[in-house]
Amino acid sequence: MAARTxxxxxxxxxxxxxxxxxxxxIGNEFCNGDTLYEPSFSTVIRWQLTENPQKAExxxxxxxxxxxxxxxxxxxxxxxxxxxxxxxxxxxxxxxxLLFDPILLxxxxxxxxxxxxxxxxxxTGIDYLLLSHGHRDHLDEASIKLVARQNPxxxxxxPLNMAKLLRGMAPSLQVQEAGWWQQYDLGGNSxxxxxxxxxxxxxxxGLLDMNQVLWGSFMLxxxxxxxxxxxDSGFGGHFEEIEKQFxxxxxxxxxxxxxxxxxxxxxxxMDPHEAAKAANILRAGxxxxxxYGTFDLSDEPASEPLRTLQEVANGQxxxxxxxxxxxxxxxxxxxxx
Length: 337
Known about the structure:
Pfam families: Lactamase_B_2 (PF12706). It comes from Hymenobacter roseosalivarius DSM 11622. This is Metallo-beta-lactamase domain-containing protein. Keywords: Membrane, Transmembrane, Transmembrane helix. Helix 7 (about 270-280) packs across helix 8. By secondary structure, the chain is of the alpha/beta class. The chain has an 8-stranded mixed β-sheet. It has one domain (about 5-35, about 60-335): Metallo-beta-lactamase, Chain A. The chain contains 8 helices and 18 strands. Helices cover about 20% and strands about 20% of the residues.
């Protein structure tokens, strides 16, 4: 018998897209839009058995992002944007401190290629922890426990079905779940609006949880500005839908790495050309790349993603201004025109 199709959302939150029924589920799996996407182990095996044509180039490429200390960023009250590596960002907006997708410590399977730009114990004063999805290079149990312990009043803004997973890591966390096109409840006096939006991706942490936690991206609206953090995503029509809903964006943080081999990665991640195309569709005024340089996740050489995106920008094929910071560099995003 075919699995039952249902639609899920948080009925306590505002859905901003008219007539949107919620996230489609087939059985207990979230769909990737309207379609169920289940990456297979056979693709991983094919990857392991396929010779990387850039193997020698990758081995010789020892490039890593520059790193500068940013410990003082966590005690400052100024608005700023700081890349902590991979997809982890500190973003202070209207005096509210946000932390995105923290992975702060090495694990058995993920070893940083460059140091963290601060001590893990420096990461305090966080108002909101925003988690785009449940993959281990974005949702790290040791990092969640550390940040929860050091920020007991922090609230977590997460996708549907993530609360149970998080409370298994840190039971005291205050978690609010949203589906796509839903606005989190930050209270009537908040200077921010934060909306959870689509991405083309999937979920799995173990053998039996395929697509049981949703994935997505975030839009922040503050003082007339729109700030977007993509999370992990393949290229797709959701970028046009987001632009149609919001109009041109001011700042867009886009993933540019982990795209080779294409037969394995193209439905989950964007290459630099696709990331630039997506930013152009979103009419982003400023583009900050992420998801490169920190971990070795794929077949492309370490320096290729940023170098390619810079070539795209230098060729005037990127609509917005490119900002490629050092890890830990403080960016004064509110001063960007």
